[in-house]
Specification:
By secondary structure, the chain is α/β, with parallel strands linked by helices. The protein is built from eight helices and twelve strands. The chain has a six-stranded mixed β-sheet with strand order 3-2-1-11-12-9. The protein has a six-stranded mixed β-sheet with strand order 4-5-6-10-7-8. The structure holds fe (ii) ion. The site of fe (ii) ion has 6 residues, from loops.
Length: 243
């Protein structure tokens, strides 16, 4: 079975539509979402409705938790705070209920899904550097063979064996039997690796391969929506830069 993995959509409708079209071409059997459906972007309701209809499962991200009252975001910087306040006014009751019912983590086909670190999913700790990845070593015994996370908006793969962790740099790779993996699966709607293209992953459960995918989308249309909605222009500009 081929699973399409999408994360950190951040209310970017154009990026989400482009990724879904690409996933159709990839002929994935299922789609799972690793959280942050909303925040930063100007199409929270549309994106939430799409996620509700196309994803087999979804876990909650920090932005989803913020708008549903599950997380205090008073300390967020002003611009991000403002978009979250605005997002709350845009969502339908069905979307609000959906987002607020999302679990912090779940096991799916033997894979653990969560937004940030699997050690305490509610705390949304980042894992994108090798130093952060090393903090997981003491938890090796409890790790699933594969954990998929989002949150950093970066593609990062960490391969664990006993007291060791290494990063994997390939675009497509096979998972080795004795290793356990934490894979951060990029971002659909706000990539942060200076590549503006939308990102997603594909995991093949039979072949045990993971593949990173990047595709072009209409950045200008998405950025213009942010400006037209009166949201901070910084969130429009960063889409062009992939930052
Ligand atoms: Fe995010």
């Amino acid at each position: 079975m081929k699973i399409g993995i999408i994360s950190d959509i951040h209310a970017n409708l154009e990026a989400l539509e482009a990724v879904l079209k690409s996933l159709e071409t990839d002929k994935v059997d299922r789609i799972v979402c690793l959280g942050d459906v909303v925040g930063y972007g100007a199409s929270p309701r549309e994106c939430c409705e799409i996620i509700m209809s196309v994803c087999d499962v979804c876990v909650i991200g920090n932005h989803d938790a913020a708008i549903t009252g599950k997380m205090d975001y008073s300390y967020y910087y002003d611009a991000a705070h403002m978009v979250l306040d605005w997002t709350k006014t845009q969502l339908s009751d069905a979307c609000r209920e959906y987002l607020s019912a999302l679990p912090y983590h779940l096991e799916y086909e033997g894979i653990l899904l969560c937004h940030g670190s699997p050690v305490d999913a509610q705390s949304f700790e980042y894992i994108f550097s090798i130093e952060q990845a090393r903090t997981i070593i003491p938890h090796f015994e409890n790790l699933k063979p594969l954990t998929l996370i989002g949150h950093s908006h970066l593609f990062k793969t960490f391969a664990y064996i006993e007291n060791e962790v290494n990063d994997v740099l390939a675009q497509k790779f096979g998972l080795r039997r004795n290793y356990k993996y934490i894979i951060s699966s990029g971002s659909v709607g706000q990539p942060r690796d200076y590549d503006s293209r939308a990102g997603y992953g594909i995991y093949d459960t039979e072949m045990r391969t993971f593949e990173i995918k990047r595709i072009e989308y209409d950045v200008e249309k998405s950025a213009n929506r942010i400006i037209s909605a009166g949201l901070p222009s910084a969130f429009a500009k960063r889409l062009y830069m992939g930052l």
